[in-house]
Structures are given as C-alpha cells and as structure tokens.
Design brief:
Blueprint (H helix, E strand, L loop, with lengths): L1 H17 L3 E7 L5 E2 L2 H15 L4 E10 L2 E10 L2 E12 L2 E5 L3 E7 L5 E6 L2 E7 L9 E7 H12 L2
Antiparallel strand pairs: 1-2, 1-6, 3-4, 4-5, 5-6, 5-7, 7-10, 8-9
Helix pairs in contact: 2-3
C-alpha cells in the first residue's frame, strides 16, 4: 500500500517536472523570419549582455533548424571576438517561445576567424573553425543553462 502511494507521488512529481514555462518573444513571418516588438528585442539584447557579463553585445538574431530542433541563433561580438549562441525554442501557431528547459550553446572564436556549430545526429554538439588562413583552428564551445537567459528575458518583457 505504501509502495503504491510512493509510486503515485513519484509519477505526479515527474509529470510536474516535465512541464516547463515558456514566454512568447515574437512571431514567424511568411518568409520564415522572426518578427519582434521593440520590448522583445530589448529583452534579448539585455539578457544576452547579462548572460555573458563580459561586455559582449548582441548584433543580430535569426531562427535556424538543426534536424527537428529549432534554435534562436544569437550573433554577438566584443572587439575582435565573435560568438554565436543557439537557444532551443518552440514554435506554436507561428508564435516563437523561449522555454525554461532550453540550453544555450555558444561558439566563440579566439584565433579562428569564423566558428560554426558542429552537428551530429541532428543536435549541436561542438564548434568547428570554418576559415582557412586563421592563426589557429581553435573555437570554444560552451553550454549554458538556458533558464537563466529565459528568466532575464521574461523579467524584461513582463516589466
């Protein structure tokens, strides 16, 4: 009896944990481009700046698909260092949503002029240097908790 009760509690907890919060940040236009209001754009820029905390600015953003996963791609820079971040998103009825359970994957260049994501089995798994003639073929790959980015964006949008 107690075992069944504990089993039921476990399943209730597991189901509750599987749901995530999401916030709408824009819509998809007929030509598959993301459209955002000024508040959402500002939220992305501020959240990006605060996520890295090193003065890196968000230059542009767009949506890209890797396998079945859609990502919000964020291109940023600080001096001569460029970075490319991918945050998994969901799109429901042409509305783009950030989720609390997203990961933020980032490629940064050091001596390589152009770093891009390397995919395997329809997932972003690393970075690779795409430019010839670079000093080095070194790119830095990092996975950040997307929940922090989500929290920053949602606070600014809900202000």
């Amino acid at each position: 009896m107690i075992r069944n009760y504990l089993l039921i509690l476990f399943f209730i907890f597991a189901i509750k944990q599987s749901f995530c919060q999401q916030i709408a940040i824009g819509t998809i236009s007929s030509n598959d481009k993301i459209e955002m209001n000024d508040k959402s754009k500002r939220a992305l820029k501020v959240a990006y700046l605060r996520t890295f905390g090193d003065g890196r600015k968000l230059d542009t953003f767009f949506i890209d698909k890797v396998g079945q996963v859609k990502y919000l791609i964020l291109l940023g820079s600080k001096g001569n260092v460029n970075s490319k971040s991918a945050v998994s998103i969901t799109i429901v009825n042409n509305t783009v949503h950030l989720n609390t359970n997203s990961e933020m994957k980032t490629c940064s260049n050091g001596a390589c002029n152009e770093c891009n994501f390397f995919t395997e089995n329809n997932k972003v798994v690393a970075c690779k240097c795409e430019s010839n003639g670079s000093i080095s073929n070194h790119c830095t790959y990092k996975i950040n908790d997307g929940n922090y980015f989500y929290t920053l964006v949602s606070k600014i949008i809900e202000e």
